Amino acid sequence: MTQVIFGNHSAVRVRRTERDKIRKFYRDVLGCELLRKFDDKDDFRIGDEFYIAFLYEAGDGRDVDKGVTYAAEDALTDDDFLKAIFLELKAEDVEKMRQRIIDFGVKVLDVPDPHLYFQAPGGQVFRLVGTTEDLSRYEGN
């Protein structure tokens, strides 16, 4: 049977007004590496092998990724972001990272689960878990 797996690249459309907060949060709070920054696009590496691009408005980043059209005006509303998929972030020291994230001033979401769910600058929703935590209960085990 043919099957799929998740790749290691992701991109999200965000408002240009969120750019400085996004850069500060992902670089300074989460410790991600800002690989490239342009008027319309930032490329971050999360961990060793996951890449996420934040797409803003038209600018000089278009020349880097030929043939790709970025349209931040099509970004989801705040309510729609909350209905979208969340990504899971793992940290060795969950409590320390939790405090750094909350101290930054993100929107903490009320989810009936012991983990921190939050909306990052730009609207992405994340769940924070421990790197060695047993998460089998989420896998139907």
UniProtKB/TrEMBL annotation:
Domain annotation VOC: ranges: 7-141
Protein species of origin: Actinomadura decatromicini
Recorded superkingdom: Bacteria
Name assigned to this protein: VOC family protein
InterPro entries listed in its UniProt record: Glyas_Bleomycin-R_OHBP_Dase (IPR029068), Glyas_Fos-R_dOase_dom (IPR004360), VOC_core (IPR037523)
